[in-house]
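[scheduler] slot 2 assigned
[scheduler] job type: sequence-to-structure, two independent chains
[scheduler] chain ordering preserved from manifest
[runner] begin chain α
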Amino acid sequence: MPLKIAAKVDGDDVEYFDHAIRPQLDHALIEFVGEVNENEKDDFLGNAFAYLFPIDWPEPFGLTMVESMACGTPVVAMNCGSVPEVVTDGVTGFVCQTFGDFITSVPKVGGINRRACRDEAERRFSVPVMASAYEQIYRSLTPETAAA
């Protein structure tokens, strides 16, 4: 299965990328496309079989997972940081405990309903839903509400 990798390589990281990463991408099925701009993102994510998120640090939110689900693309991610709060295991993708689980989950993505991914993203992370949740939090922190 082809693997397309979209990522920004910051100027400070170019030397490391060229020395340590780029040689590992030399495979007929791997394509490094570089940074994807906002105009290209929906097409890139929406046409993907899956969005792979092999995170190994406590990412506080992971907006790219939500963007993928909004495009109807299931997410395969390591159980780290916000992943289990964003991805509903078995519904919008897979939350993996080990890298072995990560690899074996990819073929299972075909069983995920892409419409369910989109619906879940809309239900939980749309602008009106997020704005309302923030407003509720802010209201709960005002002195008038705290004193009541």
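[runner] end chain α
[runner] begin chain β
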Amino acid sequence: MTESEAANAAAEHGSGCIVTGASSGIGKAIAVRLSAEYPLVLQGRDLGRLEKTLESCDHRHVHRIWPFDLRRTAALEAELSSYLAAADLHISAFVHAAGMVRPLPARTLFLESVVQSLDVNYISATQIVTTLLKKRVNHTALRGLVFVSSIWSEFGAENHSLYCASKAALDAFMRAIAVELAPRGIRANSVAPGAIRTPLSESRFTDPVQRAAMLSRYPLGEGYPGDVAEAVKFLLGDSARWITGQTLHVDGGWSCH
């Protein structure tokens, strides 16, 4: 088999999808929604919660768990390369749904918090993309990238400068690689959710005062993780074949209010 034939065979074999942050919330909803489409690699730090996500998945494919801390960016490429080699798996899609939110006033920011936020929200995504683009690791299998960003990548939010900045970096990276990778048939896009009702945000939705204040800015009312999952599925699918370098707002109309 020639090198070209081997690359084509690898591309056909490469149908897996990595979903980071798959242990809860938006990441879990994305994983469950994509589980009928791809063999998944579910990343997260909490093995128990990843196993719960796995139980909720469609099992027509074989799904795997990758318990890895994305703050360990220096080790990420080697760890992922070894993991994929051991699983004999190539990856055609990558969804970066992992995110760290740590509200801090600007005057109290310290280097460790800045670095951790960037590592989880942005740098880990670049390292995974870089790894998946290496032929020795993933051949030419990669076809679609979707980053879960936020409306706060474009707007300011009090005490959320780290989150805003890291998500803005993620979107800028997405646009740049969309241009760079398009000739190779690889598409890259972002989804920017508004306030989504997840276990982490539940208190804001159950407190009547907070809920009323928040939803006054959302013409379509509250959003759910499944709303984001549907957008991700669309952007990875053939129906979005001519869409790349874009940020799709899934915010119930917040950004146009």
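[runner] end chain β
[qc] chain β: The domain at 3-250 is CATH 3.40.50.720 (Rossmann fold).
[scheduler] slot 2 released
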